[in-house]
Structures are given as C-alpha cells and as structure tokens.
C-alpha cells in the first residue's frame, strides 16, 4: 500500500501550478489560526520544483503566516467568548488551551518562538496569546523571526538538496509518510491525557 507516493506526485503537480503561490499564501494564513495542514507540506515541494523561487516562497509563507497569527491573536483578544470558546469546546481543544496557558506561564514569550519554529501547533498559541493579552508587538516580532527561520530553513534544505534529495525522498516517501502518521497518533495520545 503506497498512498504517500501517489499523494507526493499530486502535491508536486500542485507545486508547479500557476496559482501555487496564492494557495501557499492562503494556507499559511489560515494555518496560523485553525487549519491543521502545515505550511511545509506545500512549501517544500514548491521550493523543490522551482528552486529559483524558493526564497520568494519562504517569504510569502512567512508574511502570510504572521498575518494569520495576528488575526488569530485578535480573535483570542476580542472574540474569545462569543466565537473562539464555543469553537474550542466543539473541537474538544480545552485541554490544548490549558496546556498553552501553562506554557505561557512557564516560558513567557519564548513559547511563541517555540510554537512558530517547531511542529508544535502554532495556531493554539496565536489565539491564546490574544486571550492572555500578550504585548502585540513582541508577539509579532517573535512570530516573524520564528516563522521566518522555519520557512527559510525548509526552502534552503530543498534548494541545497535539489534533485538528488528528491530522488532519495521518493524512495522513502511511503515509509516517511507512515512514520509521520504514527508520530501524529502518538502525539495525540500523549497530549489528550
């Protein structure tokens, strides 16, 4: 069973689509608020397919991700009770918000950097930062640095590895896909306690 090989070919076709930068920008924006699909899923194949535009794609992803983060912050700040809290309850994310609050208590602004650079769900922290009324300008600056580092690193790795990396990736794509699924299930089980 090789679903990830087929999905990879499909994503590579989307990566060279003439509207791919628009899709990347939209995905980057909504991923910072509520969307579960990481930006890297689009950014990496786009940078690999068109290495001459990799830095432009990384910049687009960064800018739109931080704009989405600002919107998520404003939702948490101004619309928590009427809009966000019911959504959180419907999705069963109360525990994740509680964890985010604890992380803010423990690490302060560094939690924004951690969430913006690592695979930790950034969206939870953008909304929670607004709810906790974190200072907005430091929130934006740290988000810009963290997201920028992440997306430029992804693009840089794709440019550096190029076709050679793609050939190796294709050979292991299904194994990597199943490992990611297993890691996601494990993370869910650990975080849902």
From TrEMBL:
Q: Which residues form a coiled coil?
A: none
Q: Please give the GO cellular component terms listed in this UniProt entry.
A: plasma membrane
Q: Which Pfam families match?
A: VTT_dom (PF09335)
Which stretches are transmembrane?
A: 55-80, 107-125, 137-163, 169-191
Work out whether the entry's keyword set contains Transmembrane helix: yes
Enumerate the spans annotated as VTT domain: 53-157
Q: Which InterPro entries match?
A: DedA_domain, VTT_dom
User: Sorted alphabetically, which keywords does the UniProt record give?
Assistant: Membrane, Transmembrane, Transmembrane helix
The protein depicted here goes by the name Membrane protein YqaA with SNARE-associated domain
Which organism's genome codes for this protein? Oceanimonas baumannii
